[in-house]
């Protein structure tokens, strides 16, 4: 039972079925191959140790023919040989022979699941890359936290200042209303006092008027009018000389009150003189005075309301200034955040581009117009682009981008090889993406019957050219029919593949076709 448990733990690591999602066409191995291994090439033994970053898997070469395979807490002694750029490991467990292949890459070994076992030279560099990525993620997270805290602080400060200004405006409005009530009481008190004096003076003037003749009445009226005009002119001249400021506004208010008092005094005197000639004149004068008082009260109320509106407008402008300052601060923080993120993204893209440039094939040279002209023989062989799909498969640490282009031989002869480039355009004919394609005898052709190095594309036959770009910088190209492509990618269904179809305008340029000889 213990040995069966060990086999179950090791089967995911040593299964011979290759997952194409990690970038390799499937390879099949039988027990007959394990019993009769091919002759190994002579290789110098250096006792290398290959291990994964998590430390769970390691391969130690203990001799030129044997190695130790450790997976988690289990270690097996296995035979191995080096063939065609791969490490062929023969595993015997419970009487069953299994063969696992590991490809040699620049950084060490890679199994069929895409897991990389780093060599001693590459292990420290890989750990350093993981550490730098972790530091970069921590810096981005720290920046996001600082930005959120700054935004919260600015919003809290703005809200507190806004509430303070509203409270100040409310208090000032109450103070203005209280001052208006005090002024109203002072005016009423002064009015009553002046009225009592006027009543006393009125009795005296009426008695004097009764004892005089009409000439004295006329002289008295002229004297009163002259005194009123003089006092009014003097006060108006003094008001014109003042500058209309906040303090002068108060003084002008007092002057207006004083002018009204003078007008009331002389109005009462004139009314008293005219009273002996008819009571209606006195009543009319009283009506005018009451109307004037009401008009004055209404004017004071309008001035008070205008003052309140002006104060509210002033506070509103102050609030707008604070809000504008807050918006500028927020825009500044947002711009800084976007600039930092753009810089981080640019550095990340530059690092990825450097890794891609290490293994990226040389770009195909654009053919001249004469080369693009179909020749007499090439008229019989003609591949036509039908569909293009692009999708991304894998985890954040180990992923690959798949570009799948489907062609059909619409000619009358079989196609031996062809190459070119397909370009995707938007509605304004701007280039969105481009990808070179190539099919020759060196491109593996994958099918359900196995993998072969060359395949003639018969007339009417459809074929897919698959280009895989791994995150570790390794590129791979193979060909297959659409159903076989789906079988080589077990994690993708037909519906998911169709959902990643490119629906934009696609053009094929610089095509070169070689027919069957």
- Bin the helical content: 40-55%
- Please report the total strand number as a whole number: 17
Number of H- or I-type helical stretches? 9
Query: Quaternary arrangement of the chains shown?
Result: single chain
Intertermini distance = 60 Å
**Secondary-structure class:** alpha+beta
Overall geometric form: elongated
Give me the Rg, rounded: 50 Å
The SSE order reads HHEEEEEEEEHHHHHEEEEEEEEHHE
- Major pleated sheet: 8 strands, antiparallel
**Order of strands in the sheet with most strands:** 1-2-3-4-5-6-7-8
Unreliable segments (pLDDT under 50, ≥5 consecutive)? 1-44, 362-379
Task: Please provide a written account of the structure.
This protein is α+β, with helices and mostly antiparallel strands. The strands form 4 sheets. Strands 1-2-3-4-5-6-7-8 form an 8-stranded antiparallel beta sheet. It has a 4-stranded antiparallel beta sheet with strand order 9-10-15-16. A hairpin with a 2-residue loop joins strand 13 and strand 14. Helix 4 packs antiparallel against helix 5. The chain is elongated.
